[in-house]
Amino acid sequence: MKEKAAAERGTRTGFTTGACSAAAARAAVLGLVHGRVPEEIESLLPNGSRVVFAIHDGRCEPGHAHAMVVKFAGDDPDCTDGAHMTVDLRLLPGQAGEVTYVAGDGVGTVTMKGLGLEVGGPAINPAPRKNIADNLREAAPELLAQHGIEVTISVPDGQVMAKKTTNARLGILGGISILGTTGIVKPYSTAAWRASVVQGIQVAATAGHGVVALTTGGRTETFAMTALRAERPELPSACFVQMGDFLRYALDEVVAQGIQLVVMAVMVGKLTKIAQGETITHANRSEVDTDLVAEVARRIGATPEDCAAMAAAETARFGAELMVERGLGDAFHHALAQAAIDTLTAPDRYGRAFQLRVLVCDFSGVQVADVWSAPAEPHERPASAGRIGIDHLPEA
After folding, report:
1. 281-302 per-position pLDDT tens digit
2. How do residues 47-58 score in pLDDT, each as one tens digit?
3. Distances in Å between the alpha carbon of 314 and those of 134, 243, 294?
4. Among positive and negative, which fits the CA dihedral 100, 105, 106, 111?
5. Range of the domain at 36
6. pTM for the predicted model, two decimal places
């Protein structure tokens, strides 16, 4: 912890909810063995490294033990920073080696399929479960050789924290999820969001409607919900996933899940980046290619003077609004959407692994284009797809 405090602010790493829970569990199981919960413990992380954690509120009695770790998120803006990751252990006499998990107060319950977790069970992901079990068995091998242990994880105020996450959309109700594939939180990482995008696609796949709507934020999601539910009122919220800037992760998982129709709701800036071949569309990742905007305008009959002005502009929005002024707005947005489809359905991208529908809205949320690709060929699986899965993402 001293090394962490000494690091330059803005670069400090932290620990996941799963790693903190595993450390509390390790301390508690030592309480079961020795009759006293230690005030400090060296815990094994999922990535194989070992870290010393301070233990709070340690107490034990025959067959039960309690311990808590205060989560430190480093310099990551994590809503669970400072959370009291609390573990209560209960001995299961005679159930040799068995480790079971219970969602205590503030930890969510899984209510929908698609997360790789049992419906009705606690929202404790597979990697943290394994990490907790590994720590229990390493710290108390003789105890686990004879008995089992029930692990209850609680997080005071977890219900409030969960409101700042996408848990409800994923069918995780009543609190936060216990996450973390490495145990480490990197400062200002986007890993948790990427992971939630992948989980969102997985849940959408189990909804049974054969479609997922990918949006870039709240405005485009509202637009997509209005447009699609006018056609298909039965579509649940689970079919709408805010992918943010992570189109590639979303589409890779679409292919992995075999979803046949992708509706992408975007505005002109992100649409231009997608048309130019960017599938991670964050503003800091790449600049909008205004030469492409100008070329699209040229194809639909814009004047050379207007094309030059668009190429020299800083944003795609300038070009879109100029084309609207010239009476070419519909043609421009349609052509730009088609360019994005052509890019994503190229043989070296996603081909025809799914059918793509691009819905474009302006900055007032009004639809300005609706363009479809050719139908999917279900057996086509591009080499670029399926390489990103939630188990391979470093989670915050």
Report:
1. 544 445 788 999 999 999 999 9
2. 999 999 999 999
3. 53, 25, 12
4. positive
5. 2-185
6. 0.67
